Structures are given as C-alpha cells and as structure tokens.
Amino acid sequence: MSEIRLYNTLTNRLEPLSPVHPGEVRIYTCGPTVYASAHIGNFRTFVFQDILRRFLRSQGYRVMQVMNVTDVDDRIIHSATAAGIGIREYTERYIQAFLEDIDALRIEGPEELVRATDHIEDMVVLIEKLQQKGLTYNSDGSIYFRISKFPEYGKLSKIDLSGIQPGARVDVDQYDKENARDFALWKAPKPGEHFWETRIGPGRPGWHIECSAMSMKYLGDTLDIHTGGVDLAFPHHENEIAQSEAATGKPFVRMWLHAEHLIIDGQKMSKSLGNIYTLRDLFAKGHRPSTIRFLLLCVPYRRQLNFTEDGLTQSRNSVERLRNFVARLKAEQFPAGSNPEVQKLIERAENDFDAGLANDLNTAVALASIFDFVRDANTAMDRRAFLQQDAPRAMAAMEKFDTVLALLADNDDEMLGKLGFTPQEPRMPVAQIETLIEERQAAKKARDFKRADEIRQKLADSGILLEDTKDGAVRWKYK
Ligand SMILES: [Zn+2]
What we know:
By secondary structure, the chain is α/β, with parallel strands linked by helices. The protein is built from 15 helices and 17 strands. Strands 6, 7, 8, 9, 10 and 11 form a 6-stranded mixed sheet that branches. A 5-stranded parallel sheet has the order 5-4-3-12-13, with helices on both faces. Strands 1-2 form a two-stranded antiparallel ribbon. Bound molecules: zinc ion (ZN). Zinc ion binds next to loops.
C-alpha cells in the first residue's frame, strides 16, 4: 500500500491520509441541487470523487461515502410553484436523470445518497443545539448563525473578515462569494411556499445546515474527507465548519479536497455564452460516455480543465488505444515463454500508476504510465518479443488499472441507446472485423489481390485501419 498524500485546502498542504477509523475512509460529498440537469462542470467534480473512492478501494480501504441531494432551495421552490406541483414531485425527475448520468459515466454511486427533505428533523436538532449555545438569533421568523461567535470563521477559505458589518446577513441560497455574512439556518415561510411545522417554528432549512446535519448523522462528528467543487469552499463549506464545530466542539473534517473549475474552449461556462453543457447535450452530439469520462479524469483535479472538441477527439482515441491493446492481448498468438524485460515493463507501469495516484490523485502521471506501457508492449509484440506468459500478467495489470479508471468495457453504444440516443457513428463489431481480416488473408494467400483490396477498402469505409506487419500478421484499429 503506497502512502496516500492529498492536498488539504484547510492547511494548504499535502498531507498523508490518516483516517479516524483505520482501514476505513469516510467521505462526504456535496451532491447536486436538483432544480435542473447537472452540467459537465459538476461532473468533473463527481468524476474526481469517483477516482478518489476507486483508488482508495484499490489500495485496500473500505469507503463510506455519503452524498446529499439538495431537494429544497429557492430555485426549486420557485420552479415547482411555477409548474404547479410539489417539490418532491418536481425534483424526482432530476434525481432520476442524475442517477442515469452518473451511471453512464461509470461513477460508482455513494454508499448513501440522502435527500435533504428526508432529514428535516436532524437539521432541527442541530439548530436547537446551536440555539442552546447562544450562537443564533431570530429575525422575522428566520434563524441566523452569528459568525462573530465562531472565532475560527474563515479558516478554510482564508476570507478577509476585516470588512464585516455586525449583523449583516444573507437570506438567499445563491450567495455572495466576496463577503462574510451571518447566514440563515432556518427560513421563515413565505406566502404560498412549502414549509415544515417544527419545534423551532414553521419554515424550511437554509442550504448549509443540510450538509452539516446529514454528514455527521451518517459519518460521525469528524469526517476523514469532505469534497466539492472549489466554488463551494466559501461560503458553503466555511459555514458547514462553523455550524458543525460550534455544535460538537470537535474538528468537523480532517481533509478538505476541492476540484478546480472546468472551462469550455478557454472560457468560463455562462448562460450568456450559451456554453453550459449537460451530459445529454454531448451525447446528442454523438460523444460517448467513455470519451467524456476520459476527458474529465485525464487532468489532475486541482488543475483547471479546458473542455474542447479537440480534447474530446483525443480522449476518444486514447480510450480506443487502451481497448485495442486489450483486444490484441486477447486475440494474438504469442510465441511461447516469458520475457523478463516485459515483466519489468509491467511492474514499472503498476508502480508508477499507484505512485501517481497516491500523490494527490495525479491522474496525468497514472495515465502516462499506462500509455508508455501500452506503447512499449505493442513494440515488443511487433518484434515477437512479447511472449505467451506475458499476456495474462499484462491483462491483469490492465484490469487492475481499470478498477480505478473504468474505461475498458465497451458498452458506450448500449448506454447511449438506453438513454435514447443513437450513436452517430455505429461501429463494425469486432467479430465481423476479424472475419473480414481472415477472409482478406485467405484471398492474399490465394493471390486474389483484387478481393483483398476490396476487403481493405470496405473496412476503411467503416473507419477501420489495417496495418500489415513484417511477420505477415495484421493489426487493425478504429480510425
Ligand atoms: Zn454541501
């Protein structure tokens, strides 16, 4: 097991992972607000969390991950009211769509996916605790957290607190990113809006309290890791710390991990530029789930990711290269024996892969180790230096990498079909390609070069490139 080091936003440094309960890592993840479909920037964060949990498991840890679903907030209430339906009904379809989306991207679901509206009582209990400690005040039926009562406020985001106006507060769920303010724990009901009748009065929870209440309920007072997009660090995560630590007197989270932004063609995603893409927008353009997954994971999570058409093309080719290599491993007849040089290549790839990910989930290093290996192994195969007993070992390594990357299974078309999309370029099935190649080999043997050329052309028209090797074998790949 390599020592795993992760960058903790709280301390601004790389730290070794050391879970509260040895052998088990407890992770809380801020999930989607289900008033619309999640966009590709959200999925960058979810894919990063997936790599985190898959890697931890590959290193022998048990993982307990909790993700919330924010199914009550200003936007949800407004949209549901406008649609004339209840908030549960309104949010249900977006929750279903989210589950389909993460499934398409091969994101392992969290152990617990919890809805805010199922945990109102837990939030009320937590707010009561804060009330008893004198950290709150009431105003017009709403309850606010007084940040000046929590001296460590700002320790995560390092926000400048010098300009704070005493009593300045915020009610809306979409927050000012610049100024620290007292924030609503509980909001008084507005006419015609959904509310809960509770011991602390009628109303509904503020956004931040749900994450504190639900994370501690399922994971204990001190979590090992809390993840989210970098835009959540302030004020959301700062407020989570204030509520939780003020209530329990214990550290809330050992490590805060934040994923950087995704930008599109070098620009910030924005409504006015019309460049906010959902996963389904990309599927409709013919992009495959595995291509998108590759692009989202190939840049280490703390670096900004530039999402481009070019990047999609390269990602698709990269996934194909891996799949073609595995197909070759399975199909080709290698000379008998085992080559210690190849064994060394495999070992190095495995070590570099783990070391890359153990160093703050550096997926770029991990991927480079695989692609170097695939290149070197292909070269060895071409030279007939890759031997029969090297194949199972290489296959095992590829499968091990894939427990973290989840790119090899070729079910993109099936997945797109399930979601109602037709893959733009249906590909010729591998079995058919191989039959045609055999037929072409036979034609060449019989000196029927016309037929052999026809077959080569037919394959080329279907996007299959053939490469005749020196020893008479034929390799193929998708264009
Ligand atoms: Zn949250």
